[in-house]
Amino acid sequence: MRELTLRQIEVVRAVMITGTIQGAANLLNVSAPGISRLIRHTEDGLGIRLFERRAGVFVPAPEAHSIFAMLEQVHRQMDNLNAAVGSLQKGQAFTLSFASAPSIAQFMAARVIGGLRQRFPDLDIDLNILKIEETLDYLLLEQGEVVIMSSSLDNPAVENIPICEGRIVAIMPEGHDLARKSAVSIRDLIQYPFIGVDPDDPYGRTLARPFTDAGLSPRHAMRGRFAQTIVSLVRHGLGVAVIDEFSVAEVYMPGLVRRPLVEPATITAWSVQKRGRQLSSFAEQTASLFLLYSAYGISGFEALSAPGAVPMATTAVMVITGLVILRDTLRKERATTQTLRRNVLPAVVVVPIAMIAGYALLLRPLGFLPTSALFLVVMVRFLSRRAWAFCLAVSVGTVIVVWAIFRLIFSVLMPQGIVPEGRIVAFITSLF
To answer: Distance between terminal CA atoms of the chain?
Structure first.
């Protein structure tokens, strides 16, 4: 051995400071015999004597004084390195620059920054609010790392990554006639003074999509450029509007009522960055927090019947359960007689995984009702081995009950697919 390792440097310095093997062991929280062996191995490997033993005390050998001086310098540099790493972990000496569209920044950005502050208390954050036409220069001139937008940018110099999907909802002032409905149709909205965004604007085009899909062209009583303007106008009783739910994600918004649309419509939030640029871990954390807080903000938790309450509770249960299972698994002894196919991935595990993957792929094109019914029929048949008629009856009945609870009571929008779900809801609503 011709070179010292960091562990050897640490042990030699500990012996030098304490003067005894036992003292060094106590300092490093290891066994004394291990320290003794490492010192002996180090001296043998280097071919030099590091210590003299005097009455049980280890004293630096005269020929090793220069080495110990350098060891002290190395240790101080390691302390400086560890301090720098600790500062980086807290976000010190780094400025995270990112931007957001006004609609997303209204509530979601504040929650994301709050989450970043908890994780990196000393991080310097520079948040810009940009219009879509300002985004390209901001990224290409590297004024910031990432922009969270409500629409993607069609430019080969940037990369668009979808981070979450939200609903387009109807908003109206408190006390409005439509506020009595659990879900509002776009055909109801156009009967009242309608406030919107210019459909030639990318954001306005997204908000107008449910109307254009239905062959309608709403007449705007007034227009605004940004979501905050639309919300303010509606709050003051000047009309009704549709808006992305990111813009009305605050739990309490006095003067404003939010209702899901009968006709499902969604909007995607995008993380836009300069193509080829490596994001800092802080920027990556920011994008992931937007995903997390979009779920939290959409749920609102205004009541147990809030649209996102059940998904958020389910997610929490899954996370806690997963951690408990991981803890219990790590405590078990390693098994040598188990096989992958029989004990880890038997058919009873593989088939449900495949079915869940198929469910995810078919959910959007076919819709919730047929996809769920097909999934349950196959799974009930596979797990119970009962007759097909029994499986079909149980599955269809379960899907109808679940759909009625979530769609009619909780007003959770589900993928419509090939079933005219909006018309069904409108018909049921008309009966009451």
So the answer is: 87
